[in-house]
Amino acid sequence: MPPETLDYRRSGVDVRAGEQAVESIRDTVRRSYNANVLSDLGSFGGLFRFHQPDMLDPVLVASTDGVGTKLRVAIMAGKYDTVGQDLVNHCVNDILVQGAEPLFFLDYIGLGKLQPEHVATLVEGMATACQANSCALIGGEMAEMPGFYQDADFDLAGTIVGVVDRHNILPAERIQAGDLLVGLPSSGLHTNGYSLARQIVFEILNLAPDSYVPDLGTTLAESLLAVHLSYLPTLKPWLINSGLHGLAHITGGGIPGNLKRIIPSGLAARVISPLHSLPPLFAWLREAGNLSDDTMLEAFNLGIGMIAVLAPDTAPEFLDANSARLIGEIAIAGLDEPKVSFRD
């Protein structure tokens, strides 16, 4: 008997569902457009006019990133409205540390089974964050990949392109001993440390996303899916201030792994240990997982999502204007002193 006739849909890929998903997000995506967007959703490529008359020497800055295993929490909770915002805000922060403001964003969504309503919610989150960051969502890709992802699984990645005037690129060469370190608070884990956090809460403690945690005053899903903050609204007025010498986005690797990336040779960052004043989520994870100091510092942001390196005469004004705190200083490095060390 001849084999049953196959088609693309029976193999697991529903082209019509993909077209339906594109149509469902078209108006959402258009909300993020501005006069520089010259193409519409569905084109093979996004067109963006590049015109920066207010800059002497504009330099494009690009970055690509993802949301990581925070997506597993979203899948378990059936909550898809935050991780799109996480993706955009993470990418915005990654170019912000070089002094750049975003121009446009592109996304990639890989799925086991394309469910248009889930895609629409994911894209709604991205479009919302793009609007908040004055960034156009000009294109993307949805790939239905049965046999590669399980039906409920999906992955998110994004590429952002921004611009900075060359003389304002960060970190500045003027980072020097005596500069002060100021920490801007995070909203929680942001998009890092989730493999460890998930092991603690779902495997060791055997909790569910809707479990209420008295120490946190919220359910696990509410706490773990808190949106990764964008620091652009806070830092934009300071990007042309000569007193801002550098920025470090605290992502994977924590404070030591990210702050060291902007510390010049011969200098060291001496940081007041955040382990003595942990926000509730981090303190709870530390106790529940019996985590060492080194593990905490390496895996989590510990309540600090961005660190600014500031001239001493700029720091007081910055602290007064923002929800931030002094967390350390830059010093001449001692013999064999690491780039980043922690003090009580």
Q: Give a quick account of the main beta sheet: strands, pairing sense, barrel closure.
A: 6 strands, mixed
| Helix coverage percent | 25-40%
The CATH C-level name of the largest domain is Alpha Beta
Uncertain runs with pLDDT below 50, 5 residues or more? none
Strand runs, count: 12
The CATH architecture of the largest domain can be named as Alpha-Beta Complex
Distance between the termini: 77 Å
Q: Tell me, briefly, the overall form.
A: globular
CATH level 3 topology of the largest domain: Phosphoribosyl-aminoimidazole Synthetase, Chain A, domain 2
Which sequence of strands runs across the widest sheet?
Answer: 8-10-5-11-9-12
Count up the domains. Answer: 2
Average pLDDT, rounded to a whole number, is 92
Instruction: Compute the CA-based radius of gyration.
Output: 22 Å
Give the helix tally.
11
Describe, in short, the structure shown.
With 344 residues, the chain is of the alpha+beta class. The chain folds into 2 domains: 15-168, PurM-like, N-terminal domain (60s Ribosomal Protein L30, Chain: A), CATH 3.30.1330; 180-343, PurM-like C-terminal domain (Phosphoribosyl-aminoimidazole Synthetase, Chain A, domain 2), CATH 3.90.650.
Task: Please characterize this protein's 3D structure.
- The protein is an alpha+beta fold.
- It folds into 2 domains: 15-168, 60s Ribosomal Protein L30, Chain: A (2-Layer Sandwich); 180-343, Phosphoribosyl-aminoimidazole Synthetase, Chain A, domain 2.
- The chain is 31% helix and 24% strand.
- It has helices spanning 15-30, 70-77, 83-96, 116-132, 194-204, 220-224, 232-235, 254-259, 280-289, 293-299, 315-321; strands spanning 58-66, 101-111, 136-144, 154-165, 180-185, 212-213, 218-219, 244-249, 267-272, 304-310, 325-332, 340-343.
- The strands form 3 sheets. A 6-stranded mixed β-sheet has the order 8-10-5-11-9-12.
- α1 (15-30) runs parallel beside α4 (116-132) and α3 (83-96) packs parallel to α4 (116-132).
- The longest helix is centred in the middle third of the chain and has 17 residues, at 116-132.
- The protein is globular.
